[in-house]
UniProtKB/TrEMBL annotation:
Protein name, UniProt field: rRNA methyltransferase
UniProt keyword Zinc-finger, yes or no: no
GO molecular function: RNA binding; RNA methyltransferase activity
Gene3D superfamilies per the UniProt record, alphabetical: 3.40.1280.10
Keywords from the named record: Methyltransferase, Transferase
UniProt cross-references to PANTHER family, sorted A to Z: OBP33PEP LIKE PROTEIN, RRNA METHYLTRANSFERASE 3
Coiled-coil region list: none
Pfam families, per database record: SpoU_methylase
Signal peptide bounds: none
Domain tRNA/rRNA methyltransferase SpoU type, residue spans: 10-139
Any one of the GO BP annotations: RNA processing
Amino acid sequence: MRGYFGIGSERISKAMNLGAVLRTAHAFDASFVFTVNAHHNAREVNLADTSKSGTHVPLYEWDSLEEMRLPKGCVLVGVELDETAVDLPSFRHPLNAAYFLGPEKGSLSPEAAALCTHLVKIPTRFCVNLSVAAALVMYDRTVSMGGYAPRPVSAGGPVMAPPPHAEWRKPRRR
């Protein structure tokens, strides 16, 4: 897959959610995870981060939006249940992006939303858990940008013949 992505949250407060985001980001091969103005117990994060993602995916922790620094050319995409946001299944992901979620029991601050180039929403009837929302965004990015075969028209997986077996043969002399 080309490009890179990061995922983060503003004002995250539950260590188990951050641990789950870290573990899922590691599983989906995220380039980085970040928090802005987080309020969690760092020791409890490891209870949910069973993959020990800290040795594989960097975690950037900023105290304020003013301190936040993203790589040059990285597009900030807010994830928000908002009527102006684009439905995630209809969204074309930027090649280089950082996905920014609001806190548990809350939304991105107006200042954070204003920094976002795009706002997307997960088409659900109500808000889902922060770590679930992060996983859905990462999954959608992977499916839409990962180079997978197109989905078939009928139910089931793509019908593809297995690749021919490459058998080594000693060249024949003529």
